[in-house]
Amino acid sequence: MRDYYRDLAADYHWIFPDRVVLPPGTPGGTSPGNERLVEAVVDALPPGASVLDCACGIGTDVMALAGRGLRVLGSDGSAAMVEEAARRVSGVEFATCLWQDLPGSLPGPFDLVFCLGNSLVHTGSRAAMVAALAGMRRALAPGGTLVVDSRNWELLQRERQRIVAAEEFRERDGVRCLCLYVWTFPPEFGPPIQAEVVLVLEGKDGRVGHRRYPLDFVPFTEAELRGRVEEAGFAVTESTYHPDAGRYALVAHPI
């Protein structure tokens, strides 16, 4: 899998508001609109349960979950993201691991596995996604829980909004930033959708510049995601999908 995030890792925090990236964090903060579902899943865990965030990014969800007293481990396929997560979150183990290689050397099995942040879209194909989900199943303890999320790609394609800006400027360490997504859509649903993450930055000296990071996404429907989760050996027990909501999450259990 191509590491789209090698260069973006150091700037990735600009994508999220303070309540997500700054302590104590928000469980499920990388999946806007699904925080209540994540909270419910976490609240149902027994004391001392073990959790793997296998799309940990820069460690935002790991930080929030560790603050709940859970035994949390973060992994990601991007070594740059793992390095940034380890820098930002202390007292937690992080590892670089591709989904299809799970559990690898990770000290599982885990009671709960998260794959949030619209990460599965980077698998690129049905077969690769099923292999990734099968790896997550191997990392789970019997009776464990998997939570995955996604953008609503059908809605995104239908609306075809070219430029999407964050709701506010964010200021950290004296630098102000406005994050924008600039989308390029194919004529019909199915082929890759391109996006550029564009960060408009005002430095401490008042100078304004920008940095841009291109990304490719291979879209899928909620029905396709559900089918692939089931093909990997899970039963889907809950979905927050709504045709007019921008994101959704699935809860599943191994069978």
CATH class of the largest domain: Alpha Beta
Number of spatially distinct domains:
2
Distance between the termini: 28 Å
Class per helix and strand makeup: alpha/beta
Secondary structure tally: strands: 12
Q: Per CATH, which architecture of the largest domain?
A: 3-Layer(aba) Sandwich
| Element-level helix/strand string | HHEHEHEEHEHEEEEEHEE
Largest sheet: 7 strands, mixed
Compute the number of helices.
7
Looking at CATH, the homologous superfamily of the largest domain is: Vaccinia Virus protein VP39
Radius of gyration: 18 Å
Percent range of helical residues: 10-25%
Domain Methyltransferase: 51-144
Protein name: Class I SAM-dependent methyltransferase
GO molecular function, one term: 2-polyprenyl-6-hydroxyphenol methylase activity
GO biological process, one term: methylation
